[in-house]
Design brief:
2 domains, five-stranded mixed β-sheet, 4 helices, about 40% helix
């Protein structure tokens, strides 16, 4: 991997200031990242952008006045929390139908749906 003169100078300045070269690489260019100790963020000297890997890093960067153009965002979206099943009997059965469908157990889901139909007509 060849390093252009400008990137080399950036790396030298950052390391001389006590920052740390990491074993992690930039998700865009594959260049090794540098941990900027003063602000607690990872930086790609080749892309000249901060690599944001968590919500906390994003908040930190925003509090420092950084714009998204200054960042490489690699935050994984959090899985949405599953809704709690309802506490009534019909609601619980409907929730069970949804679980069975998600598991691909369509025949079982159909049986439970028929039970719901009978119970709701009583």
């Amino acid at each position: 991997m060849s390093i252009d003169k400008e990137t080399k100078e950036i790396i030298e300045k950052l390391l001389l200031r006590g920052n740390t070269l990491l074993g992690e690489t930039c998700p865009v260019c594959g260049f090794p990242l540098i941990y900027i100790k003063d602000i607690g963020l990872k930086f790609c000297p080749k892309c000249k952008k901060y690599v944001i890997t968590s919500e906390a890093d994003l908040e930190k960067a925003r509090s420092l006045g950084m714009k998204e153009d200054d960042m490489i965002l690699t935050i994984e979206k959090k899985e949405s929390k599953r809704r709690e099943p309802p506490k009534d009997a019909i609601g619980e059965l409907i929730y069970e139908i949804l679980k069975l469908v998600r598991q691909g157990k369509y025949d079982e889901a159909l049986i439970v749906a028929q039970i719901v139909k009978i119970l709701s007509s009583i």
